[in-house]
Design brief:
Strand content of chain B: 25-35%
Strand order of the largest sheet of chain A: 3-4-5-6
Distance between the termini of chain B: 96 Å
CATH superfamily of the largest domain in chain B: FAD/NAD(P)-binding domain
Oligomer: heterodimer
Number of strands of chain B: 49
Number of domains of chain B: 6
Largest sheet of chain A: 4 strands, antiparallel
CATH class of chain A: Alpha Beta
Largest sheet of chain B: 7 strands, mixed
CATH superfamily of chain A: Folate-binding superfamily
Number of helices of chain B: 23
Radius of gyration of chain A: 14 Å
Number of helices of chain A: 2
Helix content of chain B: 10-25%
Structural class of chain B: alpha+beta
Radius of gyration of chain B: 38 Å
Structural class of chain A: alpha+beta
Distance between the termini of chain A: 22 Å
Helix content of chain A: 10-25%
Order of helices and strands of chain A: EEEHEEEH
Amino acid sequence: MRIACPLCGERDSREFSYKGAALALGYPSEEAGFEAWDDYLHKRDNPAGPTRELWYHGSGCTAWLVVTRNTMTHEILSVELAEDAPESAQENTQGANA
Amino acid sequence: MRIAGKGLINRAKPVSFQFDGTTYQGFEGDTLASALLANGVKLVARSFKYHRPRGVLTAGSEEPNALVTVGHGGSQDPNVRATTQEIYEGLDARSQNRWPSLAHDVMAVNDLAAPFLGAGFYYKTFMWPKAFWEKLYEPIIRCAAGLGAISGEPITDKFERAYAHCDVLVVGSGPAGLMAALTAGEAGADVILTEEDSLLGGRLLSENGQIDGMPARDWANATAIKLNAMSNVRVMARTTVTGAYDGGTYGALERVGHHCEMSDGLPKECFWRIVAKRTVLAAGAIERPVAFQNNDRPGIMMASAVRAYVNRWNVAPGKSVAVFGNNDSAHDTAADLLAAGVHVCALIDSRPDATTTLDVPFYAGAQVSGSEGRKELEAITISRASGIDKVQADCLAMSGGWNPTLHLACHMSGRPDWREDIAAFVPKPGMVPGLIAAGACNGAFSTAACLGEGAGAALAALEAIGLKAKMPKLPASEDRDYSISPLWAVAGKGRAWLDFQNDVTVKDVKQAAVENFRSVEHMKRYTTQGMATDQGKNSNVQALAVLADATGRGIPETGTTTYRPPFTPVAIAAMAAGAEDKGFAPERFTTSHRLTVKAGAPLIEAGLWYRPSFFPLKGETHWRQSCDREVGYVREAVGVADVSTLGKIDIKGRDAAAFLDFLYTNMFSSLKVGRVRYGLMLREDGHVMDDGTTARLADDHFVMTTTTAAAGQVMQHMELVSQGMKRGMDVRFTSVTEHWAQFAVAGPKARELLNGLLDAPIDGESWPFMACGDISIGGVKGRLFRISFSGEHAYEVALPARYGESLFATLRARAEALGGGVYGMEALNVLRIEKGFITHAEIHGRVTAFDVGMQGMMSKKKDFMGKGAASRPGLLEDDREQLVGFKPTGVVKQLTAGAHLYNDGAEPVRANDQGYLTSVAFSPTMGTFLGLGFLRGGRARHGETVKMVDHVRGIETTCEVCHPVFLDPNGERARD
């Protein structure tokens, strides 16, 4: 698998490590409440299709990336820097459908 | 038998080799298979299950029968295909799966028991008693059935891994591949052309046709020379592309040293990862056998293989050859045999309307329905409407048609299309993104069509990557329709083989269907059809056709099994080359490493680092003696230890303090410049990630330490927080772990030691506990931190790493002069356990700040990473397992880490579990074992007695629960 890092260009997947769904970016406030924390920490969609996930370019520029990937074909639909990516779950879903 | 002819062997260079202890002669250019056939050796193997005599079936990597073992000891390779193994002087090959010899194999008795050994036999017969499977049945079956064996000795061959990138990867160098590589190469693209064989040309090397007015193999050779001369084309012979992966990545196995003595210093194999913008798959096609009774005898071969042996290697595989087919390939074979002067005793074509102009006994609308002979074919039975004929023959060339070699195109879960006109599966475009199939692997079987498709595929690839090219003028070549009438299995009694390698017959597949294993994937697993080294390249399509027939479905509805990498077997040694031993876990050494080793200190791994366990002195016979002595240095005089392996992260920026406030549970913005603070870091889920000290060197400049093991994880975590969760903060961080050599100087005489060394002496007023700042030693600028992991008056002194070794030597000498010395990890561990300081033995990923008694460090004034999650219900309950200390009180005065805790009197079973010990040490300071661990509701249970049971080591004792800080609970020594 190859990921096109916006800073470094296309690189082999072994330069990256995977964290999980990109909704990790939407860190809830301390008052967010049990439900919000449960969603944030544990509830994950398991889509057959596009999904947004976090990858870390640890053997490259150390950028965190939001990679939109189709779980059926492994096709990578887009790669953006985490610092430019939408934070909230709502926006994430829209991003995935776009 | 060798015959005259202009093949591709070098008759001027004879080569001698051994097979099963007998020395034979072949020529340079021979494979083991061609050389054995030239010597009249037909029996080369025994089959997997029935131990049937077997001969060479094919002339390629799809060979199911002729598997041999090559080499000895650490260089022994089992299951080498004789059809791809080139001979060299001294090659020593042995047959497999037979005892005592290939000609007299006692396990051939299995063949007589065949009626009882059909599909599913194991599953039905060895069901019970249950315990017998593992102890009795399986070992016996494994012993009787099988392929070659490894020697069991450590591998002595060299293997390599390599990486390549290109614009266009061309897989296969037949007419389609050569034309594709030529077209792409001439357009200026970076091209890699891979060929499994030692020579370029594919089927052209084995056929008699003409291209561009010259023999096809000459055209192939001329094109190969052209390609080799192009600087933008890399030609890789003896290289099989074994798998297609995401993003245009391909795995390829180059057999670098299999064709020569291994003493040449070459690696045996090299595993390549090739990344290609576009790929032209020109892998050709594999001819398929026809199933008929006893179609597995030595001497029965693929027609294409017979042509290859005759044309390329000038070997007649028999004196009297019969040819049987359902397509025109059979006629080509008969023609080539006649041209080479080999007697053709019969040409049998199953198509009733077939005709021939060849001067051979011709049987149209007939089928071969049986064979005779044991270790060698002697006769065949020909059935046709008018009756049965028996014909003497010592070789039968058979052709059931051609299967495109579409495996790579299917490696990403694509399902191929069935084409009725050629009775074969072909790849669908786009099954592997960026891969274009051309030529025979795409169902185009004439040379002209292959050349055209090769050029066309190259053009499509070039256009996709933005290179301009025109359709080249194609060389003139044979262009003929391919005509086939499907024939999978000849009707009749007896066993008709589909999968030669696994001894799967037509009857087995039908039996699977009867027992309702109707899915092709179920049938495969029930019968073992298509498993082992050839992965059914010769047989899968026929087997599924038989299954389709038995279940009353069409072939497209039945479908194929899943194609998976690798296309041909790949040694794990090749894929793992360079990653074994130290290549798997590179070593990180501290600046004091050389002196540490010189001092005879045993090393212990900490992540990739190597640290000293203890520094033994002469006369010490047990590690505890050294450890106790080193603990004494720190408690009574001064000890020195290398702590450079702790992660060091330099943090700068206007928002550095605010960033640390979010990262740590406690406050850092309130930390004064020139002071150090201990910090606790949580994960998003509220559990402890790591701890360590952070020093404030300036308003906007901090240096953080992490534990040795978690340095990388913490860095990654900080990047995520700053890039993803708390964006826009003005903060940057850099790992400086290896920039600094840092040593702990600990003990009552620590300041005395330093004051003899520092350019400017320090005192308690200017350097109180938890102070930090710049110092210099001999004019070299460094840093000093008054922090303590031992509870003693202690410092950590840091100089740039290049001064590390001399600083270590100096500190050691000065410590020794003061009645102290260096100490290792064992002493460090004892010192911190005495003080109840935690490490990752305690913060092992499942504990909260509350559990380790640090709930007070969770600031109420600010939000921080993990705060919300840490306050979830269940994480703050009083009955959680909490950190406490333990002292043994029973008869056994020993504690063991990992032991579990039970209430006194309770049975030591899981349901009664009260907690566990995480760290233990014998404290020479207090003269007893001490333990740290987690006990249910432990903080309220100080003074209680609990039972410790180590089920693994069989140790049981009672211990007293106490506060985890055993020594100097008010921390007066460190502040002294």
